[in-house]
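User: Teach me something about this protein's shape.
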Amino acid sequence: MNHWQDITQRPTVSTPSPVPEPLQKQRLLFVTGTRADWGKLAPLAHAAASAGYTTDFFVTGMHMLDSYGRTGDEIFKHAAGDSTMDSKIHTHDNHLTGTHPTSVLASTLRALHAQVRTRPPDLLVVHGDRVEAFAACTVAAQAGLRCAHVEGGERSGSIDEQYRHCCTKLSTYHFVSGEAARRRVLALGEDPGTVFAIGSPELDAHVGGEDGGGGGLTLGEVKRRHGIPFAEYGIVTFHSVTSETDTIGAQAAHLFASLAASGRSFVVIAPNNDPGSDHIRAVLARLDLDLDLDPDPDPNLNSGARGRFHRVASVPFADFSVLLKGSSAVVGNSSAGIRETPFLGVPSLNVGTRQRGRAQADAESVTHVSAFDDRSIRRFLSDGMWGRRFEPHWGFGRGTAAREFVEVLDGSEGFWERDLQKSFCDDA
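Assistant: First, the predicted structure itself:
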């Protein structure tokens, strides 16, 4: 009798087919050094994790400082509360308040280089124009890692704009906010096949969904959480301009004297840790003491500030989204007044030169003034603009950047195989 027939005649035992291992997608490392870039990177990280990518975080910069609300804690909470994320979070204290940016750069380079050697990512993701982003792009280029730069091609002024364009040249891929930014990246000699116009990611967090729109929070809840006593309020964020550190204190003093004289109430978010921010903080400290703010006050202005300003070190992005939608106006020189307020139809008063040349600055909802132009500031804060609502402006996208980001990761031909050797593209 044939042996093989014997085997086939034995009773058979049904065994399940082996279940194939799920396809392991690539590991992404998001580098964040400020509360502003976290608001842009968080929607991308959430979408990538939901699509099956491993999302790690390198948290440094302002996130680690108590004086700025230690916002790194928000990232731990975000990762812990997101069931789609399987993340490793590495933190690094790269400076104290007042540390020179060169020292910050050196510290970040060393720490991030050690991190990518320990747990190499398939793609390093950075945003914008800060020294931490520049350090991350440099590490990626030296380590032979693919790097995706978010919001290259923007005009942001001072040393920040130089950092931004350096990041473009060091990065493999570019996720830009619109066509104007795309043209600038191409003008720097980048391959058109590496440039993707997805819109500005922080807008995703204002249009709802699991990770945006305030996460179901109400304005009342957010006000109680941050101790905001006002029924009606504006939001003020005034940052230093690194090329104007000799006058930034006087600018802040004049601006807040004008705001105090308006009779309006304001939530004041502390400035970034740029050189010169200590001059602004000195002015903000005087708000609490109800002292004259302007070193050369206009006798026709009552600059008493007590009760009109509520100061906060930082606001989590979901809370900020709710506050922004509920505000009567946004004042200062943050990019929120150029990008997010036009998207939401909220009036904004753009003060000084920090946002000069930024796209969407011509939106109907945006008014431009000098910090010393008290007349124009008071006009804006009158009933003419205060509390108005405008039609949404779509110059930076429609809140779909995260979805488009993942579509590129998943579906762009050759994305994960592209040669890391770059050459200048003359034909763009």
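Now, about its shape. The longest helix spans residues 101-118. The radius of gyration is 25 Å. If you'd like, I can walk through any region in more detail.
User: That's plenty for now, thanks!
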